[in-house]
Design a protein that fits this description.
This protein is an alpha/beta fold. The chain contains 15 helices and 22 strands. It has two domains: 337 residues, Aminopeptidase (3-Layer(aba) Sandwich), CATH 3.40.630; 204 residues, 3-Layer(bba) Sandwich (Glucose Oxidase, domain 1). Helix 2 runs antiparallel to helix 9, helix 9 packs across helix 14 and helix 11 packs across helix 14. The longest helix is centred in the middle third of the chain and has 21 residues.
Length: 548
């Protein structure tokens, strides 16, 4: 640890010598991080679900902290942006049953399947719906790939595989970027496309490796109250019933129709795959919905810039978590979300504190704490579609989600490395610490589409998102990978993601210094970083900037 401290001390000196501002960067306060993470993840906040007492407490805490620092409310005199949501809680859920095959296959809600809806309706009733296996459920004209080609699934139940057809490829070459997941591989896309096709139910087959998490994560995330975006038509265009099923149950389903899931999966990976009706099998499931409309909130605070106050650099993190969830064996049913994402929320305050100490930069800094990330990036998506600050005046920024407490690392894992010119800003910050930015070791997990930076990217705003490196100073990649696996299997989206007074904060502080340096340089420069030529978001950015 001492050698890493010396490394950081030397890095700080180099940073002072090379930064655009002559003033040394203030230290990020570990006391602020500890205090706020402990508070936000305490049982009193009940897991910070939107629309609960946990939201009220989290918002009050953030506003109090930002006020103490002298920041300004960012939305026309208000600290908040209302985000219209609907809380839907499934009740009286019947088993998902498949009849008409050699034997009836029934999957119990919770341990074997989960189901819900985006539709704002008091009851969902899918009865005797013909079942079709649609492979990966992808319709990508630009890739010449359509799993729904020649198929009418109106009123039918579609069974879908998670991830992309080429996720097992070792390299990054293939119709869907090889091992690196595209948006076509995300569960959110699967349900969106099934809705466009008119399906009555869409069920994804859970498989731990391509899903990137175990069934425990699915069960804890999909049971209990669910948040969905509100709309004038009550989301009538969405699939009535959406959910997941355990792989062994999907195997039994296919076997009941004389089919083999492994054979079907192999066929679905190849171009030209044709959807397969699952014999005469029909699906049924029903459930009642408790519905509560409410307005959750994004929080936005501003440190006004000195010379270009109408240009903004953004720091974002989501304040929400799952609230009460599937109980652990000891009866604990609060998903506290200490790492995910009390750490990122606390970091917004700690970074604001450091920037206030340094004095206002040229451009304004905006600190945005968004709601509904755990429900599908709802708060950031709403902000992107209804921006408080003009998008063509938003220079770019950084997003923080689930900071690591595994100890200092020699690297950081850059999510979406090579997509934008922000990489160069991060590289300069990394150089001052003697560290490097590396590609994702598990690109098949699709992290680029799993946090709030994606909502801003879709609007053309370049956002940097990196995760703590896996090459730890003590123990190397073996220790880093083991720590990540331990968190994913035992705490991620579960009741044991709790504050630990024994955490090692040194690596976290080093990463926060990177976020500080990148944001500060963006706020002091006159440059407008863009996406690289050919990137999917480049044209959106160019159009936005041209219209300023």
């Amino acid at each position: 640890m001492r050698s890493f401290s010396l490394l950081l001390a030397g890095a700080a000196m180099l940073s002072v010598a090379t930064a655009s501002s002559a003033a040394p960067a203030p230290a990020i306060s570990v006391d602020t991080m500890k205090r706020l993470v402990k508070e936000l993840s305490s049982d009193a906040y009940e897991g910070r679900a939107p629309g609960t007492v946990g939201e009220e407490k989290a918002l009050a805490l953030l506003v109090a902290e930002f006020q103490k620092l002298g920041l300004k409310p960012g939305n026309k005199g208000s600290w908040f942006q209302d985000v219209p949501l609907v809380e839907i809680t499934a009740k009286n859920v019947t088993p998902l049953s498949f009849t008409g095959g050699k034997a009836t296959v029934s999957a119990a809600y919770g341990p074997e399947m989960v189901v819900g809806t985006y539709q704002v309706k008091p009851r969902i009733d899918v009865k005797d719906s013909p079942v079709v296996f649609v492979g990966y459920g992808i319709n990508a004209p630009e890739k010449g790939w359509n799993d729904y080609a020649g198929l009418d699934v109106k009123g039918k139940t579609v069974i879908i595989l998670v991830n992309d057809p080429d996720y097992e490829t070792q390299g990054l070459e293939g119709p869907f970027n090889g091992r690196a997941m595209t948006y076509y591989g995300r569960w959110t896309y699967k349900f969106e496309e099934a809705a466009r096709q008119g399906a009555a139910a869409a069920i994804i087959v859970h498989d731990t490796v391509p899903a990137a998490y175990g069934w425990n994560v699915v069960q804890s995330s999909w049971t209990g109250a669910q948040q969905v975006a509100d709309s004038a038509d009550g989301n009538a265009g969405d699939v009535p019933a959406i959910g997941w099923i355990q792989k062994n149950k999907a195997q039994a389903l296919m076997a009941s129709a004389g089919l083999d899931l492994a054979t079907l999966t192999a066929a679905a990976k190849k171009p030209g795959f044709k959807a397969v009706p699952v014999g005469a099998v029909k699906a049924s499931v029903s459930f009642d919905n408790e519905i509560r409309k409410h307005k959750s909130k994004n929080v936005i605070a501003i440190l006004p810039g000195k010379t270009a106050p109408d240009e903004y650099v953004l720091y974002s993190a989501h304040w929400d978590h799952l609230g009460r969830c599937e109980a652990a064996p000891d009866g604990d049913d609060i998903c506290n979300g200490a790492i995910d994402n009390a750490t990122g929320t606390a970091a917004l305050v700690a970074l604001a504190q450091a920037n206030v100490k340094a004095g206002p930069p040229a451009r304004s800094l905006a600190f945005l704490a968004v709601t509904g990330e755990e429900s599908g990036l709802l708060g950031s998506a709403y902000y992107g579609e209804n921006p408080v600050l003009p998008l063509n005046k938003t220079v770019g920024g950084v997003n923080m989600d689930a900071l690591s407490l595994a100890g200092p690392a020699k690297n950081v894992t850059v999510i979406g490395k090579g997509k934008s010119e922000l990489d160069a800003y991060l590289d300069r910050a990394l150089k001052t610490q003697g560290r490097v930015g590396t590609l994702e070791p598990t690109p098949e997990k699709g992290f680029y589409y799993r946090s709030d930076h994606f909502s801003f990217a879709k609007q053309g705003v370049p956002m940097l998102y990196f995760e703590a490196g896996n090459d730890l100073v003590e123990g190397g990649t073996a220790a880093g990978d083991a720590a990540a696996k331990d968190y994913e299997e035992h705490r991620y989206h579960g009741p044991k993601d709790e504050y630990d007074p024994k955490w090692d904060w040194s690596g976290t502080l080093a990463d926060l210094k990177l976020y500080y340096d990148v944001g500060r340089e963006l706020a002091e420069t006159k440059a407008w970083p863009n996406w690289v030529q050919g990137d999917e978001f480049r044209a959106i950015r160019d159009k936005s900037r041209a219209g300023q």
